[in-house]
Amino acid sequence: MTHQHRTSHAVVVGGGIGGLTAAVALHRAGRRVTVLERARSLEPVGAAISLAPNSLRALDVIGLGDEIRGLAAWQGDGGLRTPGGRWLARTSADAVAERFGGPLVMVHRSTLIDRLAARLPEDAVRVSAPATLVDHGGPDRPARVSTPDGELEADLVVGADGIHSAVRRALFPGHPGTAYSGFTTWRVVIPVPGLGRFASHETWGRGRIWGTHPLRDGRVYAYAAARTPAGQHAPDDEKAELMRRFGTWHEPIPRIIEAARPEDVLRHDVHHIADPLPAFHRGRVALLGDAAHAMPPTLGQGGNQAIEDAIVLAAHTGDLAAYTVARRPRTTAIARKAVSVARLNMMSSRVGMAVRNATIAALSQAGPALFERGFDGIADWHPPRPPYASDEASVGSR
């Protein structure tokens, strides 16, 4: 068994968006970084990701914000609709940018993964590399991680291994872990011939929602969610399931479903951490992203908070307790808000829905900032040190 140890070595378990952002930030800080990814490639299982001004400012810190802004589609012109097509509330991209100091954008996850990986040394990322935390380390000893190729020692291990994090279970074996959020989701990223320009929208029905957003490359990102018992699947295929649940809703929803192939549709039950962890660190190990604070996707902040975590962690590697202090209260509050929003937009009571829709419509008429106000305290976050614009005009391939 081989052993490696340098005082500047950081091991990141998980090659998703949060793990790669942490790896890039630590690499820029002068650390030798090893990223261990269980899957056979970094190609994400997922679709698009919405990046708010808070995470874009975090990406500015590692010189990537401007590049992503240039590759992404700006969001904001659109709003909230009923299944029949009536607009309950309108949103404005310009208003979002003015209120929070930057745009809300949509980009494919693989684009962000590729740009992050390109900023790491070629030998930094190991795929097909499942990792097990052997020792979380302490003041007088490094942390240790076992891999199929041997054991690694590091003065910092980052647990970025997602919602079913093995690193989290190793650090806090008594924690109950995740809970089912009560609904499942479907996602597609596809071209839709003849669709043309359309406004982004989220549509709230009875225990169901649908969202549609254009991407910069001309494809459409759409997602849906519905209350359903955990572990269910369509009796035929998930495209047919979407047509059954959403096929009578307003355009362009039926057209998007029709354009999808069954294999284009991803379905995942949603889980979240209902009981916050006691800390986001132990010994020389820190958790970030879903491993630390998995939340429902109803605010679109899961990936954004992972990016924030990564930048803050890189600024507190000498004091992981300070990282917990900086991140735990914020992410706990945002996760709780995401759960509350899920209760609101997945409401199944007809009376409750009528009251909800009337309230939203009235508030929207009183002022156009209803959507924007919902992101106060979230999208206006700034990183621990001032960001700067991207310092690289282009990025070469790895």
Automatic annotation (TrEMBL):
<dbReference type="InterPro" id="IPR036188">
    <property type="entry name" value="FAD/NAD-bd_sf"/>
</dbReference>
<dbReference type="Pfam" id="PF01494">
    <property type="entry name" value="FAD_binding_3"/>
</dbReference>
<dbReference type="InterPro" id="IPR050493">
    <property type="entry name" value="FAD-dep_Monooxygenase_BioMet"/>
</dbReference>
<keyword id="KW-0560">Oxidoreductase</keyword>
<feature type="domain" description="FAD-binding">
    <location>
        <begin position="10"/>
        <end position="315"/>
    </location>
</feature>
<dbReference type="GO" id="GO:0071949">
    <property type="term" value="F:FAD binding"/>
</dbReference>
<dbReference type="GO" id="GO:0004497">
    <property type="term" value="F:monooxygenase activity"/>
</dbReference>
<protein>
    <submittedName>
        <fullName>FAD-binding protein</fullName>
    </submittedName>
</protein>
<dbReference type="InterPro" id="IPR002938">
    <property type="entry name" value="FAD-bd"/>
</dbReference>
<keyword id="KW-0503">Monooxygenase</keyword>
